[in-house]
Write a structure and sequence with these properties.
Length: about 250
Amino acid sequence: MLTIVDDERALAAAAAERITSLIEKSIRERHGAIVSLTGGSTPRLLYRYLGDPMQSWRARIDWSRVHLLWGDERHVPPDDPQSNFGMAHEALVNHVPIPAFQVHRMRGELINVNEAAREYESELEAAFLDANRSDRTFDVMLLGMGEDGHVASIFPGSPLLTGSPFEVTLSVAAVWAPHLNAWRITLTPATLLNSRAIVMMVAGTAKADAVRWALEGPEQVDQHPAQLLRRVSDRVYWIIDQLAAGRLHAAPPG
């Protein structure tokens, strides 16, 4: 399902409406919502919209019934400017009435990144248990996409892309990104694809090629990780601006 909007403000508003509607639906059907947030620059305005008392979305969400988690994190402390959690906390979490124990961040400050991944695996389990869920399925998975087509911290050539993405039993992995010379903590492809709904936000000319590869290019998942989402396309909402859509030949069905 593809929505193309004029600019980044329209992108943030469309994503806010979609995410709010999905959370409302989840609360009606399952008495709560388990939501995974993303980092990067694109969702910052979305988070501000969701947390703005002057906008309708903040009041429509029963934040007492929401658990917030993250799709990936950099190997930095939460107050680092590069922290995905730090950005979302400043733009959203700090402005909504969500109980602190329902905000589940990845501890990127731990020296041992594998320990951080193992700890977040346990944190996920605790979050789902607290929400009375046994299926370990996210209700809403918010994702962005890099210029190289990566999603979360699943980069081209990642070992997480070998074999079937549905065969991985762990939900969280520590991954080394050689091109960044850095460690990341990330949800695995199986966890992303198992979500009830995935909202993809993409903006800007610099990502137009990646969008074209993700939606229309021949399948080369190892080089274009966003193509993973084709396998669950009926649950993916692509929301992109005109600049990001600039290289598309035709809108995909739905």
